[in-house]
Write a structure and sequence with these properties.
- The complex is a heterodimer of chains A (195) and B (337).
- With 195 residues, chain A is mainly α.
- Chain A is 41% helix and 7% strand.
- Chain A has a two-stranded antiparallel sheet.
- In chain A, a hairpin with a 2-residue loop joins strand 1 (19-25) and strand 2.
- Chain B is an alpha+beta fold and 337 residues long.
- Chain B is built from twelve helices and 14 strands.
- Classes of the chains: A mainly alpha (195), B alpha+beta (337).
- Chains A and B meet through helix 5, helix 6 and helix 7 of A and strand 8, strand 9 and helix 7 of B.
Chain lengths: 195, 337
């Protein structure tokens, strides 16, 4: 799967295209990439949409584009080279985006964290959570705190339980599941004797 | 005979000669401030807040230097801009604005005692300072390797015997399996200078403080046992290796014309071991120990080569004079096959 620049709606030419209409006519396939609003406005019957062309939700997201090379045998070498170069470019852009990941609270970039091995502020733990998660997973015993809390020893569990109650009351089930996992991690049998 | 003393054949081994000191360092950061490495403008405010909190809870706390603590732990002095507080009540040093806003370091003869002392001061500080913390990953630190408990607890050991018989590598692998790490000194291009090792926990998250302290103590005890056995084995089974190491070091100490602090530490390592085992005349174990512990190994290098040579030359002259009358005693000579 290859991502390109966001395609504009072929009707309003303003919004990003999120849906593709395909129509067979005289043995030819006509495609029309449109935004969500135009798709709803158009009263024409919705053609059978391909799975690969399904809208991906958020505004600015790109329609999935699947590239199929038909015919027998391998694709010509220049096509392979072109695809490979495009994939490299996409990966390179993705890597650059990772390096530019920045903590809004202190302005520290992920590339600086990688270079110095130090975060810039407590907020960096949230800003770089996706990057730090696998690292903690690899380096630490468990990615769940089981020790002291600021208010004193053994308060950590009560604190999480209180937060879990709050989350359930607010019907924030995603947060509740996370907190439940944390409590389960606390209950997990330890390899060695603790206190 | 002291319970830590082992005697077998010719060998006298004291566990306290292997175990130099234990420490527990608790790292904390104050909510709402950037970490010290990112922002130095709030350093004064943080140092003042830490000083004020200490003053309320530990009346004898005052600004001071960490020289003694660093020497006993063979660790580099805190970075520039760090404010250090010492106190009479507890064997604890508090550093503000090092890698983290607050580092509370307890120093004692066992990890348990060191942790108890550090914990007391950390809890006292916690009454007045709001530490950055999240329930899922604990105390937030500048370095990802300290997050969670923020606790590094360990023991500094002199493992000359294990190093000489070439058994340090298996020990390091064993520590890995215990999620502990052996940190060595690598000074002036000398690998594992002085065969001083800091045995410290490798993980800080996912296990509580008591577990970390208990494991650290177990790891240190196991290594002390291994080292005492290695020293006995050196004397009984490998006397030539042992005497070669000691005699070679003595020869250089008597005749070197230039000696850097790092090289001196490395040469004193087998001498300290031989002195503590009672194999030298002209130097007591205490004296060898004092000399070994007081070298300015972390002093910044003199950039001018001539001045550096002058310092190293003066040091070599003093050492030549001091070691002129230090010789292996009869017990040592009897070891030779």
């Amino acid at each position: 799967m290859i991502y390109y620049q966001p395609m504009k709606c072929e009707i309003c030419h303003k919004n990003d295209a999120e849906t593709v209409f395909r129509r067979e006519e005289d043995g030819k396939t006509h495609e029309l990439y449109v935004c969500r609003e135009c798709a709803a406005r158009e009263s024409r019957p919705r053609p059978q949409a391909q799975r690969g062309a399904r809208a991906r939700g958020k505004s600015g997201s790109r329609p999935d584009v699947s590239v199929t090379i038909s015919g027998s045998g391998n694709p010509p070498p220049f096509i392979e080279a072109l695809l490979s170069a495009t994939a490299d470019l996409v990966n390179h852009i993705a890597e650059e985006e990772d390096c530019d990941l920045t903590c809004r609270k202190c302005g520290t970039k992920w590339s600086e964290v990688e270079e110095k091995g130090l975060l810039g502020c407590p907020g960096c733990w949230g800003a770089f959570a996706k990057k730090l998660g696998p690292r903690l997973q690899a380096e630490q015993r468990r990615v769940a705190h089981t020790g002291k809390s600021p208010s004193g020893a053994s308060q950590s569990r009560k604190h999480i339980e209180r937060q879990l109650q709050d989350a359930i009351r607010k019907e924030d089930y995603k947060e509740a599941a996370k907190l439940r996992d944390m409590l389960n991690a606390l209950d997990a049998p330890k390899e060695e004797g603790g206190k | 005979m002291s319970p830590s003393r082992r005697r077998r054949g010719y060998a006298d081994v004291f566990e306290e000669d292997v175990r130099i000191s234990s420490f527990a360092r608790i790292s904390r950061n104050i909510s709402g401030y950037k970490f010290p490495g990112r922002d130095s403008s709030s350093a004064d405010a943080i140092a003042a807040a830490v000083g004020e909190a200490l003053e309320r809870e530990m009346p004898s706390a005052k600004e001071g230097r960490a020289d003694t603590a660093c020497r006993s732990l063979f660790s580099a002095p805190p970075p520039k801009g760090t404010t250090v507080f010492t106190m009479r009540e507890e064997p604890v040093v508090v550093a503000a604005n090092g890698t983290d806003h607050v580092a509370v370091c307890g120093i004692a003869d066992t990890p348990q005692k060191a942790y108890r002392a550090a914990e007391k001061v950390e809890e006292a500080l916690g009454k007045h300072l709001s530490f950055a913390w999240r329930p899922d990953i604990g105390f937030l630190t500048a370095s990802p390797s300290d997050v969670g408990t923020g606790l590094k607890v360990g023991t500094v050991l002199h493992l000359e015997g294990l190093s000489l018989i070439g058994e340090m590598e298996p020990c390091i692998r064993g520590l890995d399996a215990m999620r502990m790490r052996a940190e060595s000194l690598d000074l002036a291009g000398i690998r594992q200078t002085g065969h001083i090792f800091r045995i410290v926990n490798a993980v800080t998250l996912g296990e509580d403080e008591q577990t970390l302290v208990a494991r650290s103590a177990r790891a240190a005890d196991a290594l002390v046992e291994q080292e005492t056995n290695a020293r006995i084995r050196l004397v009984e089974e490998l006397p030539r290796v042992f005497s070669d190491s000691v005699c070679r070091a003595l020869a250089i100490l008597k005749s070197a014309r230039l000696l850097s602090a790092a090289e001196l530490l490395d040469l004193l390592s087998p001498v300290r071991m031989a002195a503590s085992m009672g194999f030298l005349s002209g130097m007591t174990a205490d004296e060898a120990d004092r000399m070994f512990m007081s070298l300015p190994i972390f002093a910044p290098d003199e950039p001018d080569a001539d001045k550096r040579d002058a310092v190293d030359g003066k040091r070599a002259d003093e050492i030549n004079r001091r070691f002129a009358r230090v010789v292996p005693n009869n017990r040592f000579i009897d070891l030779m096959p």
